[in-house]
């Protein structure tokens, strides 16, 4: 794991790590009142999480809606200002490390070129008044790259790269299918030759058949361009297909983290095991021998989370006790690269969770 220096020292980062997040915290105020809005509480959407994204790989953040995945992604990109923590980024081993939280001026402008995002809803993320050419060329215009002729040529190259043709350049988003709209969003994200792309549930709004096409396209682009992906998702079958590393989030915290195959075949946190047991498997024989874990109770309010382990109110483990209520579990490494935040990590045994 990467060791960060003190805040007063120059930020350092392992050359193999493209993105390093440490102690990330983001809170949102809860306000009441019709005329005078006053803050009556806080929702801690992200509660001190740590993770690294290795260069040229895909790190997936997984969890149910409201667990803080998208907030984390927006903090990483500087779209939302975090309240605490560090976000260190290096585009290539030869580049300088950028602290996203404190970057400004030319450093921030350089970071904006190197880190891009593909949004969940392709239609909502595209300006309906602009043509495809204008949409894809917009990042080039904002960063004052090239002239009109060179930008048009670049747009044609990008459209062909994502599986569209030059004739799509004159169309507007409403004239495209959902899959074509998402391809336009991907082309726009690639316009500035970024090294890091955040994918915020990029296929959840698409038909299943189109999902496979977009996922294959993203995989091909990563291989061809050497891209690093931070993949936000809740569909475990998609995560299993695209990921190198997986971090499972619950109520603003990472509860399990490690290589994809380790997390999917030997989950140690009860929440991860419950998630995997609920994922459908297209093999009837495997489905018959799988262990289903049904969580009881409702998801706690993010504005008033449980003390200690946030999962303890729904935990099916009989050993959950006073320690779980009084002490926050830290991410402990149980095997190389595999970390679990649980006072009573569970062995998988012979149960089948995912295939």
Question: SSE layout and pairings?
Answer:
Blueprint: E1 17-32, E2 38-54, E3 58-62, H1 69-76, E4 84-89, E5 98-99, H2 105-114, E6 115-118, H3 132-142, H4 148-161, H5 178-190, E7 196-200, H6 208-225, E8 228-233, H7 236-242, E9 245-250, E10 253-259, H8 260-265, H9 270-278, H10 284-289, H11 322-326, E11 332-335, E12 338-340
Parallel strand pairs: 3-8, 3-9, 6-7, 7-8
Antiparallel strand pairs: 1-2, 1-4, 4-5, 9-10, 10-12, 11-12
Helix pairs in contact: 3-4, 3-5, 4-5, 5-6
Low-confidence stretches: 1-10
Number of helices: 11
- Walk across the major sheet and give the strand order: 6-7-8-3-9-10-12-11
Order of helices and strands: EEEHEEHEHHHEHEHEEHHHHEE
Mean pLDDT: 88
Give the CA-CA distance, first to last residue: 29 Å
Which overall shape is indicated by the principal axes computed on the Cα atoms? globular
The overall strand count is: 12
The residue fraction in helices comes out at 25-40%
Note the beta-strand portion: 15-25%
What structural class do you assign from the helix and strand content?
alpha/beta
How large is the radius of gyration? 21 Å
- How can the largest sheet be summarized? 8 strands, mixed
């Amino acid at each position: 794991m990467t060791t960060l220096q003190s805040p007063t020292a120059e930020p350092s980062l392992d050359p193999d790590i493209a993105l390093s997040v440490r102690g990330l915290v983001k809170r949102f105020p809860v306000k009441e009142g019709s005329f005078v809005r006053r803050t009556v509480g806080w929702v801690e959407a992200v509660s001190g999480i740590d993770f690294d994204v290795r260069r040229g790989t895909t790190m997936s953040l997984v969890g149910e809606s409201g667990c803080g995945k998208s907030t984390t992604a927006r903090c990483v990109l500087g779209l939302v200002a975090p309240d605490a923590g560090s976000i260190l980024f290096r585009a290539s081993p030869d580049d300088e490390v950028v602290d996203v939280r404190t970057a400004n001026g030319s450093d921030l402008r350089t970071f904006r070129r190197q880190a891009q995002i593909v949004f969940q809803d392709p239609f909502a993320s595209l300006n309906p008044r602009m043509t495809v050419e204008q949409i894809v060329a917009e990042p080039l215009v904002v960063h004052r790259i090239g002239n009109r002729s060179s930008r048009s040529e670049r747009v044609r190259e990008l459209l062909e790269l994502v599986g569209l043709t030059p004739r799509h350049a004159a169309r507007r988003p409403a004239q495209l299918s959902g899959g074509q709209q998402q391809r336009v969003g991907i082309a726009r994200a690639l316009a500035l030759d970024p090294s890091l792309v955040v994918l915020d549930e990029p296929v959840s709004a698409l038909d299943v058949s189109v999902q496979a096409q977009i996922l294959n396209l993203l995989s091909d682009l990563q291989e061809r361009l050497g891209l690093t992906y931070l993949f936000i998702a809740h569909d475990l079958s998609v995560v299993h297909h695209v990921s190198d590393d997986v971090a499972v989030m619950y109520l603003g915290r990472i509860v399990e983290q490690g290589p994809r195959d380790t997390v999917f075949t030997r989950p140690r946190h009860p929440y991860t095991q419950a998630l995997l047991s609920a994922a459908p498997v297209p093999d009837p024989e495997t489905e018959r021998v799988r262990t289903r874990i049904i969580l009881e109770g409702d998801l706690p309010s993010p504005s008033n989370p449980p003390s200690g382990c946030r999962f303890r109110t729904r935990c099916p483990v009989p050993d959950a006790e006073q320690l779980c209520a009084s002490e926050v579990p830290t991410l402990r490494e149980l095997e190389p690269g595999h970390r679990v935040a649980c006072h009573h990590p569970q062995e998988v045994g012979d149960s089948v969770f995912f295939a």
